[in-house]
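From the shared-data thread, chain only:
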Amino acid sequence: MNTYRLITLALLALSTALVLPFAAMDLYTLTVHKLDNYFLYMLVTPAAVLSFFVVQAGVVVGFLKGWRNHVGRAGMWLIAVWAASMGFLLFRFLHS
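Structure, as C-alpha cells:
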C-alpha cells in the first residue's frame, strides 16, 4: 500500500473515532433513558473541533496525492460516518 493512502485513511479513521463514540452515547441516552445528556457536550466540543481539523488534513493530503487512487471507497465511508455523527451531534446540541 502507498504511504499517502495509509496516512489519509489513518487521519480519517482517527477523526471518525473521535466523534462516533459520543454520538452513540448520546443516541443511547436519548432512546433508552429518554434524557438529554448536557454534560456530554462538554466532552464532545473539543473532540469535534479536533476531529474537524484532522479530517481537513486528511482531505488535503488525499486531494494533493490523488483522491481516487489514494483514498477510494474506504475514505468516502469514513467521511460519511464522520459527517453523519457530526450532523447528529450538532442537531442535538442546537435543539436541546
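Helices lie at 3-31, 40-64, 67-70, 72-94.
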